[in-house]
């Protein structure tokens, strides 16, 4: 079936099934990967998606733009069709892969071949010394002045406590006010007693090395969603570490994932909660745009304090406990008890989570997009001429949206995002402008990582060709304001802005991509909300920051220095977003890009 639009044309086998229909693709892959002839050491052994597996393969064995090998040897699964524009592809049905839904142990045997990268090139993996590419990513040494800067950053001057991760390879001033995982786990932030790490993709050895030496043997609970071979692989990674224990999140609904990214850090001085967007792997903390919400240091309550003590005006404490209780895990019951013992009253954000299940009655409003709808109705002020205030959604993966906008995006999902105050408004069409920010092929090609950055943008051809209507909503990634235009976003953000993009009604940073699996979909004539995955984010509302006008100002200056900084929210990318041009295509991970080289002189051939 030929699909054509302004954003490309593809020929796809009619037997291709969507992720939600293809149960076989859930099964993990257990073949083995080596880094070609280069390092002669095995590649990353952590479970990851097919898209990331392809990215790692291309990093280990890059296809240079001058390489003529493609003319004689076509990849087995993706064959290029003759096309003047180089954008016509024929995919076999064996390429089915749910985007960012199921992971496979990252091991695949590849042909041994010599690297043709110069020795001094950053992509050279043929060195025998210990500075492999991954170890280079771990090189993060803090000078005393930088440590003091980081501490000052966290103790004051950022009332929202919203941060970006540091990016290697950008101007240093754009990393001022940003955090690396080693900063977060630093003794400056507290004397660690124990910690819990909730995440999707986890490299245990790398994670342990991010903790300071003195904290590496402290109890560490890893909360994950792995099963079968992937679970066995995760356990094997942790065998050398006696201090590590696991909690497996139940995923009883097909194609769900444990996508939440959170840290619980118990200190001698108190407790801290970190909700963020990065996987626990080196790549995610190296050259991507990621978001972090870092809680205040929560002090311990006096002994004998009441059960309701230490609650915030945003109900954060009880909401966090409810989220943890949804796992129904004895290991997390211990953390629930610890949270009960601390004072979370200084929290100014609302917690917004998703947990797998089918919810009816009042439970329907506990999770997903109906939870956002409830929070906006209760705590956001109604806006004059609100139908003209656009929505912006920005994400790194896209699920199946259905045949047109009425199926989910412009019906139930939009209705939740446009809720404000107690007014009840039904939007049957996309009356409110919707700007969806998702990287183009050129965004990826010109990024710091080059084409392999697309491994963390797992939008598949099988999904894309069924919803070409969606691409008319797409806008390019651009972040000159934070120096991160070339740091591909893995952050996910949603917000409502005034027509001139100067005022911000609310802002959400979350793990949730644009998918029904993450946000939930109504069933049974609207009486039931079905959610497949675990997700977690925090919602910033003006009322929680003492603003009675109903909006923040958008703080777009590169280094805002204002006494009234509390009312200027640091949106991390450029506004207004720029719509795709006629030649722009959304990044699709499982088709080749051979017409132009990336920043490392390579092409993208995923198979």
From TrEMBL:
Positions of the record's site feature: Interaction with DNA: 515
Keywords on record: Cytoplasm, DNA damage, DNA repair, Exonuclease, Hydrolase, Nuclease, Nucleus, Phosphoprotein, Repeat
Domain of life where this protein originates: Eukaryota
SUPFAM superfamilies (UniProt xref): Phospholipase D/nuclease
Annotated residues for binding of substrate: 261, 492
Keyword Cytoplasm: yes
Single GO term (MF): double-stranded DNA binding
Cell compartments where the protein resides: Cytoplasm; Nucleus
Keyword DNA damage: yes
Active-site residue numbers: 259 (nucleophile), 490 (proton donor/acceptor)
Record's compositionally biased regions (Basic and acidic residues): 100-116
UniProt biased composition (Polar residues): 81-93
UniProt xrefs under Pfam families: Tyr-DNA_phospho (PF06087)
A Gene Ontology cellular-component term: cytoplasm
Assembly notes: Monomer.
Free-text function comment from the UniProt entry: DNA repair enzyme that can remove a variety of covalent adducts from DNA through hydrolysis of a 3'-phosphodiester bond, giving rise to DNA with a free 3' phosphate. Catalyzes the hydrolysis of dead-end complexes between DNA and the topoisomerase I active site tyrosine residue. Hydrolyzes 3'-phosphoglycolates on protruding 3' ends on DNA double-strand breaks due to DNA damage by radiation and free radicals. Acts on blunt-ended double-strand DNA breaks and on single-stranded DNA.
Record family assignment: Belongs to the tyrosyl-DNA phosphodiesterase family.
Protein known as: Tyrosyl-DNA phosphodiesterase 1
């Amino acid at each position: 079936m030929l699909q054509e639009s302004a954003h490309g044309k593809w020929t796809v086998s009619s037997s291709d099934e969507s992720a939600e229909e293809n149960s076989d693709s859930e099964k993990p892959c257990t073949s083995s990967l080596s880094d070609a002839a280069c390092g002669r050491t095995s590649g990353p052994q952590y479970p990851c998606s097919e898209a990331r597996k392809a990215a790692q393969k291309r990093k280990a064995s890059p296809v240079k733009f001058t390489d003529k090998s493609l003319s004689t040897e076509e990849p087995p699964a993706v064959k290029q069709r003759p096309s003047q524009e180089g954008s016509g592809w024929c995919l076999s049905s064996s390429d089915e892969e749910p985007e960012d839904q199921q992971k496979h142990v990252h091991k695949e045997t590849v042909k041994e071949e010599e690297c043709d990268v110069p020795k001094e090139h950053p992509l050279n993996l043929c060195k025998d010394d210990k500075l492999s590419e991954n170890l280079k990513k771990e090189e993060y040494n803090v000078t005393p002045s930088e440590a003091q800067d980081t501490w000052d950053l966290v103790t004051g001057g950022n009332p929202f406590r919203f941060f970006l991760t540091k990016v290697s390879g950008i101007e240093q001033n754009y990393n001022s006010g940003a955090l690396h995982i080693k900063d977060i786990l630093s003794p400056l932030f507290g004397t660690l007693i124990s910690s819990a790490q909730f995440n999707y993709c986890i490299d245990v050895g790398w994670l342990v090395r991010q903790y300071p030496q003195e904290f590496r043997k402290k109890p560490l609970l890893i909360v994950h969603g792995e099963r079968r071979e992937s679970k066995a692989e995760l356990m094997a990674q942790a065998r050398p570490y006696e201090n590590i224990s696991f909690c497996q999140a139940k995923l009883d609904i097909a194609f769900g994932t444990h996508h939440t990214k959170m840290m619980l850090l118990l200190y001698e001085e108190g407790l801290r909660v970190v909700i963020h967007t990065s996987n626990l792997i080196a790549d995610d903390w190296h050259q991507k745009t990621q978001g972090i919400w870092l809680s205040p240091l929560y002090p311990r309550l006096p002994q004998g304090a009441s059960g309701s003590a230490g609650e915030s005006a945003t109900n954060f404490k009880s909401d966090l406990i409810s989220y943890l209780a949804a796992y129904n895990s004895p290991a997390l019951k211990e953390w629930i008890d610890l949270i009960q013992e601390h004072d979370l009253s200084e929290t100014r954000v609302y917690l917004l989570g998703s947990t797998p299940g089918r919810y009816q009655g009042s439970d329907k409003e506990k999770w997903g997009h109906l939870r956002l709808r409830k929070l906006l109705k209760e705590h956001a002020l109604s806006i004059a001429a609100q139908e003209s205030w656009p929505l912006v959604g920005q994400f790194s993966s896209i699920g199946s949206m259905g045949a047109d906008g009425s199926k989910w995006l412009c019906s139930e999902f939009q209705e939740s995002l446009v809720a404000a105050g107690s007014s009840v408004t039904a939007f049957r069409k996309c009356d409110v402008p919707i700007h969806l920010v998702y990287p183009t092929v050129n965004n990826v090609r010109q990024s710091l990582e080059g084409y392999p950055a697309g491994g963390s943008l797992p939008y598949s051809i099988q999904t894309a060709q069924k919803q070409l209507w969606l691409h008319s909503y797409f806008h390019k990634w651009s972040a000159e304001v934070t120096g991160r235009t070339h740091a591909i976003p893995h952050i996910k953000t949603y917000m409502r802005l005034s027509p001139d993009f100067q005022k911000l009604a609310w802002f959400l940073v979350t793990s949730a991509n644009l998918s029904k699996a993450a946000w939930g979909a109504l069933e049974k004539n609207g009486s039931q909300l079905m959610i497949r995955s675990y997700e977690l984010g925090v919602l910033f509302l003006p009322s929680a920051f003492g603003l009675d006008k109903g909006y923040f100002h958008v703080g777009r200056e590169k280094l805002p220095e204002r006494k009234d900084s509390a009312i200027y929210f640091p949106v991390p990318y450029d506004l207004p977003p720029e719509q795709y041009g006629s030649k722009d295509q959304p990044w699709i991970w499982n088709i080749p890009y051979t017409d132009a080289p990336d920043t490392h002189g390579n092409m993208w051939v995923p198979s």
